[in-house]
Fold:
Amino acid sequence: MGTLKTILQTSSVGRPITPNLKYGGTARVIIYLDREFTRLGYDSLVAATGDSRVIGRLIETVPRSISLWNMDGERNAVIKPRKEHDELSEKHYQIILETILKYKNIDIVHDHPGSGLISSKKFREVGDQIKTPILVTLHGAFSDRYAERYTLWNKVALEKGNIYFNAISHSQKRAFEERGFRVSATIYHGIPIEYFPFRNEKLDYLFSLGRICPKKGQHTAIQIAKETGMPLIIGGEVNSAHNNYWKENVESYLDFSITEIPEKEHEDYKNNLVEKLNAGENIIDEGQIIFVGNLDDRQKIAFYERAKAFMMPINWPEPFGLTMIESMACGTPVIAYSVGSVPEVIKDGKTGFIVEKTGNEEIDLAKMIEAVNNIVYINPKDCRKHIAENFSITREAKDYLNLYKKLLGNFKYDA
Structure:
């Protein structure tokens, strides 16, 4: 088995790796692992755009991300054309591959974007020269749209012999393996527990956080709030791809939206709410539904801490929802539909409630409402304990380090 010292994680050109992200689960995973690997004494390298900030060593690829995101994690208005995006991505992966060939002391390459490195033009040119094990984390749900890509990945992995894939939940792993895809391990995400303060005392509101789109189910959270009379605070990003959903299914039901005030006042508005929450003050009246937009870490933690429950009525097989473990770390139980990784993350009746979907919307909604009414029986301390024992960054980093060492020992798939 080879010695493990230097780890190279790869990002994409979509956004910088920065601690101020307001959206971006994959980038957050890279940030947390980089910090933990560095803390443990490993030489942690992160290949990312030049506008990134890391704890280990930054391997700068292109000067900046593709203007979808800025240094504060906010989505910019200008989106680069697809051609320019593809060209920057190719340049990004070219520099990564040249770095791997140049620095012979890199022991493991951990590719997070997945779609880029082993599919790039440069890899087709130099892939045979790279003997370093490459681990690709499958961050996304299996999609038939990408069947051609998966076929290519499998083909390349079989030909090269040093490319491996890992899933982030067992449900995701099964979905890939059922289509003949080879997955070497399942490693759950983790968070730095100390970043998410525990609070036992809660205020009387529900909280929802995530990209505003049908599969995240904000419309269902709104229905639940209306039926129970519980105030609901919705945070997240609105973008043009789901503008109709936002207008018809969310915005029209709000008592207040941050989009109603000038953009220059948004941070002051959110920070004012955070100050009130931290002082234990109520910020929303009974029966109200408000939208507070994108939240940075400090802001979202304040909303997590004081919420009676975190609502996650998703209707897609989410591979892993970081919001679930962030919320429970703060002592706030989660109520979610039993899809994707949900049953693997929540302990039903102990750290929240898992609602089985029947296909009948009325029955499913009634079950969700029952769960909200029973949330008083969940002990916040059990939520915190569950995350500390199962979903810490310490545990995640240890699992990855063990897998890296296994791959360095020339791991072979079962026949």
User: Anything to note?
Assistant: The chain has two domains: 6-190+392-408, 193-390. The radius of gyration is 22 Å. The chain is about 40% helix and 15% strand.
